UniProtKB/TrEMBL annotation:
<dbReference type="Pfam" id="PF05258">
    <property type="entry name" value="DciA"/>
</dbReference>
<dbReference type="InterPro" id="IPR007922">
    <property type="entry name" value="DciA-like"/>
</dbReference>
<protein>
    <submittedName>
        <fullName>DUF721 domain-containing protein</fullName>
    </submittedName>
</protein>
Amino acid sequence: MRKPNDISLKDAITKMLSVYRLRGKYDETGIVVHWPELMGTAVANRTTQIYVSQGKLFVRIESSVIKNELLMVRTGIIDKLNERAGSKVITEIVFL
């Protein structure tokens, strides 16, 4: 039997992230973790470094061919990543 002031675990974690102002960093970390799943194995295998700083996603890719392909679809990648995060986390992608 639930008490009237009980909340679900999901709601409690969401509230905790908001109270301690960790939501942004949590979302950024989620983007980095889900990069291989969202971009596929071909891109993930050639990605050597990925990190987020001030709303920009920095990605180092070994293959110049893949880098050029990703440059052409940059806005689509940003939309896909933000959709996965559930909020506007990434504003720009920089390929190194």
